[in-house]
Design brief:
This protein is α+β, with helices and mostly antiparallel strands. It has a single domain, classed as 2,3-Dihydroxybiphenyl 1,2-Dioxygenase, domain 1 (Roll), CATH 3.10.180. It contains six helices and 18 strands. Strands 1, 2, 3, 4, 14, 15, 16, 17 and 18 form a nine-stranded mixed sheet that branches. Strands 5, 6, 7, 8, 9, 10, 11, 12 and 13 form a nine-stranded mixed sheet that branches. The longest helix has 13 residues. The radius of gyration is 21 Å and the shape is globular.
Length: about 325
Amino acid sequence: MKLVVALLLAVSFSLPSSTASPLVLHVTGVDTIGMTVSDMDRAVDFYTGALTFEKVFDVEMSGRAYELMTGVFGARARVVRLRLGDESIELTEYLTPKGRAFPADLRPNDRAFQHIAIIVSDMDTAYERLRQRHVEHASTGPQRLPDWNPNAGGITAFYFRDPDRHFLEILQFPAGKGLEKWHRVDRLFLGLDHTAIVVNDTDETLKLYRDALGMRVAGSSENYDTEQEHLNNVFGARLRITALRAAEGPGIELLEYLAPRDGRAAAVDTHANDVVHWQTTLITSEPERINDLLRLRLFSLVSPNVVSLPTQELGLQRAVLVRDPDGHGVRLAAR
């Protein structure tokens, strides 16, 4: 009997605790924020012409490793990296197979929503420049958030669309808010402060980005009232906003709509060649450790495993594409 008890105690102490903290994968930086486009030449003309991005590289990708990384069988794609200030975006046009066009009915509170926030030194001038390019409004116009909101008061922002109808934002920080570099006046378009994603439950999403990937919460806010409604173009909008940061690169902003709660889930059959697809590249020295987190069910795999890339054209050695709890694409990669 004593032997049985001793064996049971030994087994119980060897079992992992269900309340143990998740293993941290140690994301060190947010690299490129990417999106799929339907016409690369048109997209490059817009981002370089209207928003003054500069081309870094323009390559064509194909082969087994690229298929596995993207989860698109037979993938052949043109990939262009563009830089604005210190930050970059990555545009991908799938030459084959072509995916689906951007959904005509996607709303800013639907969970497939993602945008990038481009910081400007002068909102009036930037808005007029976009008007001259006949951009599609996603906000009714630039909105100055009210001073009663301690974290967001004085920020001026405007949502609009690119030629593929991806949502974009221009944003100007008032004195005392934002990074020091966002208060330069030598250029109109300064760089990318963050990418924003709509989530169903902030606390659940933080289990991935904060607890498992090691990003830190840099700030939070609850935004509502008429200015927020007109910015997001969602009547009655009330948002819980949580800003996440790694040691380097732009932030990731979680947008949880406390009201209205009718935002739709992302389509479960979204693929990387669909124009609605975005992917945020997070840098880590050990992307293979993603396998240690599979049991936590905080994400779903798109790539079957970490893929070694045969060339350095994308600036990455190994990468794996996953989707977070709300379906947003996340590429974990080692340089």
